Amino acid sequence: MTDTLHIIGGGMAGAEAAWQAANMGVPVVIHEMRPKVKTFAHRTGNLGEMVCSNSFRSDDDESNAVGLLHWEMRTAGGIIISSADQHALPAGSALAVDRDPFSETVTKRLLDHPLITLDSNEITELPMDGNWIIATGPLTSSALGQSIAAHTGADALAFFDAIAPIVYAESINMDTCWMQSRYDKGDTDEERKAYLNCPMDKQQYEAFIDALLAADKTEFHEGETAGYFDGCLPIEVMAERGRETLRFGPMKPVGLTNPHRPDDKPYAVVQLRRDNALGTLYNIVGFQTKMKHGAQTEVFRMIPGLENASFARLGGIHRNTFINSPTLLDHQLRLKSRPNIRFAGQITGVEGYVESAAMGLLAGRMAAGEILGRLVETPPLDTAMGALVNHITGGAAAKTFQPMNVNFGLFQPIDAKHGRKNRKTRYKAYTDRAKAAWQEWLDAQKPTA
């Protein structure tokens, strides 16, 4: 007799956890409060909705840790990565997604599964009994967040996450802009032209920085602090760190040649990435912002090519809550003080769609295995998922714990007894080792006859 697994939250982590557990034969109820209870960032009631960027980042599984995580999820039959593949957009070496069809596909596949049901009521208290996964993400409701904090005896940590604006393609001046992926990356001509580029000379860049620094910004409420995650800094915060910071970040001009003026090297370049399959929407890459909406339109229209830009969505900022996982969770992602509850996704302190879905994949398999009476071991440290879950459940120092993207710095070092390897060779060694370890871990989970 199997028990039901209850999952709070239908984002990347919750959707993936439900899919994995149901495919192991465990009945699942997804408790998703949307659309009854709305958040400021979500637009729909769909499961797996993308609320910030539409990119799953690098898809290179040989020399990039994120791409390796994609590979591990694909081999484990992940619903998030397979749905992303189904609705992929040209993005050079990255995996960008047509966001609405993607979330609609995730929702349909989950609700069509005979073992998955959806409950749209808000859960406001930490559950006492039953098998649960909390995958409420960065926008955990205040009631549930307070319940978690009250039980753990520690305040939830929090940082602020910012959303980049989206521009209507028809409003972009292509006499100024051009299509090119940095360093012409990509296997096809479409991929090599996946990004739209807006060039700036030094005078334009300096004026843009001045306007950015002077613009009206969102004010914080009393008692809040701006503990931003470095991987998702608002552009004005980057500019405050130094006038040249953006030129060495999202506005770096390297690897690009302006066909309108091939002999003039841009001083800075703003890149936009296609946001839907129709090519009618583009998001401004790396331009998360906490500027007020009126200021955004004025400042962003200073970008050459965007003088008459029309915005489908302006940027925003929201509180992003996560728990101190190294203190609170064991290596099975269980709450130490109440082991019938697991946590998954961004609330555990991982950052990014891919990392969130990966922790959902593990939590779903681990919870289902426990219900079925067969232990699903934590993946080996040599794998991307194993390295990431190890970091958040003990590898990181609890006192300074901050959200983390997957990266090779979390992996056990490669033996370089033949001398220091170059980076490309070293990363390939990491991914080869990880793939072998991951496949062995997957094979060990197959039920024996």
Automatic annotation (TrEMBL):
HAMAP family: TrmFO. PANTHER family: GLUCOSE INHIBITED DIVISION PROTEIN A, METHYLENETETRAHYDROFOLATE--TRNA-(URACIL-5-)-METHYLTRANSFERASE TRMFO. FAD binds at residues 9-14. The keyword Cytoplasm applies. Residues 5-373 form the MnmG N-terminal domain. It catalyses: uridine(54) in tRNA + (6R)-5,10-methylene-5,6,7,8-tetrahydrofolate + NADH + H(+) = 5-methyluridine(54) in tRNA + (6S)-5,6,7,8-tetrahydrofolate + NAD(+); uridine(54) in tRNA + (6R)-5,10-methylene-5,6,7,8-tetrahydrofolate + NADPH + H(+) = 5-methyluridine(54) in tRNA + (6S)-5,6,7,8-tetrahydrofolate + NADP(+). Its cofactor is FAD. GO terms for biological process: tRNA methylation; tRNA wobble uridine modification. NAD-binding protein involved in the addition of a carboxymethylaminomethyl (cmnm) group at the wobble position (U34) of certain tRNAs, forming tRNA-cmnm(5)s(2)U34. This is Methylenetetrahydrofolate--tRNA-(uracil-5-)-methyltransferase TrmFO. It is found in: Cytoplasm. Gene3D superfamilies: FAD/NAD(P)-binding domain. Belongs to the MnmG family. TrmFO subfamily. Keywords: Cytoplasm, FAD, Flavoprotein, Methyltransferase, NAD, NADP, Transferase, tRNA processing. GO terms for molecular function: flavin adenine dinucleotide binding; tRNA (uracil(54)-C5)-methyltransferase activity, 5,10-methylenetetrahydrofolate-dependent. GO terms for cellular component: cytosol. Its EC number is 2.1.1.74.
